[in-house]
Amino acid sequence: MARYALIIEYDGTGFEGWQSQPGGNTVQDTVATALTTCLREPASITGSGRTDAGVHATHQVAHFDSSVELDCVKTFRSMNGLLPDTICVRSVSKVSENFHARYDAIKRTYRYRITMIPTALDRNYRLWVRRKISIDAMNEAASQLLGVFDFSAFCKVQSETVNRICNIDSAVWVFEGDGCWYFEISGDRFLHGMVRAIVGTLFEVGTGKREISSISSILDSGDRRLAGPAAPARGLTLFRVLYPDGSLPYSG
């Protein structure tokens, strides 16, 4: 068996998330179906992590095994010919048989995009913030997320994840121009619903609904009820997944 890695980009608007589920229209199932047709044998893929319904990705990484050696260029072309317009494969690379898209990842980066100006073309990829909001206050609050913490307070209540310790090394709002900003957060791992819960809580800081210093106390509490509501899915994108040098030939 030979192992290969895909870098996948997708518009999550019409999907019920990344992860396969019975009867669900998911990105993972759609890619696996195309891959099965391409390989002419049953295929399954393992992603670097899951994204919720409506969340996008520019750099989802997934691996799969093939019983035969593949021509990566031909597989790349074939996959993109089989997939819907809302999903594309950015690269196909042969990797070590021990490579694991999820467990080998050392850093994941998400971006949440907002606009202060109404938009029609970007409505599925950027949240229109209708109230006056302080980016400075949100950045000051976001700095309290840096470090190694138990992020239970920002995890979906029904999550079955036992280990909720994450190491966040970057969390900052960045100005893009024309009234547009994005929040970029990077860490070794993220919990179910974590980024959207963080963004929703920062929105409350930015609008003056809660104190800047509240982020630390929310983290200490471990209580999801003390954090803000999850921000809408459409603004969130899995932006990049990093691996140790050399383990993924093409990083995108």
Question: Which features would summarize this protein structure in a list?
Answer:
Alpha-Beta Plaits; 10 strands; alpha+beta; 2 domains; 252 residues
Q: Layout of SSEs?
A:
Blueprint: E1 2-10, H1 27-39, E2 46-47, E3 56-66, H2 72-82, E4 87-95, E5 107-115, E6 127-128, H3 135-142, E7 147-150, E8 165-177, E9 180-187, H4 194-206, H5 214-221, E10 236-242
Parallel strand pairs: 3-10, 5-6
Antiparallel strand pairs: 1-3, 1-4, 2-3, 5-9, 5-10, 7-8, 8-9
Note down, in words, how this protein is organized.
This protein is an alpha+beta fold and 252 residues long. The protein folds into 2 domains: 2-104, Alpha-Beta Plaits (2-Layer Sandwich); 107-239, Alpha-Beta Plaits (2-Layer Sandwich). 21% of the residues lie in helices and 29% in strands. Strands 1, 2, 3, 4, 5, 6, 7, 8, 9 and 10 form a 10-stranded mixed sheet that branches. The model has no long low-confidence stretch (mean pLDDT 94).
Identify the overall geometry: globular
Approximate strand percentage: 25-35%
Helix content: 10-25%
Structural class: alpha+beta
Q: What number of domains?
A: 2
Q: Give the SSE order as H and E letters.
A: EHEEHEEEHEEEHHE
Radius of gyration: 19 Å
Brief write-up:
The protein is of the alpha+beta class. The chain has helices at about 25-40, 70-80, 135-140, 195-205, 215-220; strands at about 1-10, 45, 55-65, 85-95, 105-115, 125-130, 145-150, 165-175, 180-185, 235-240.
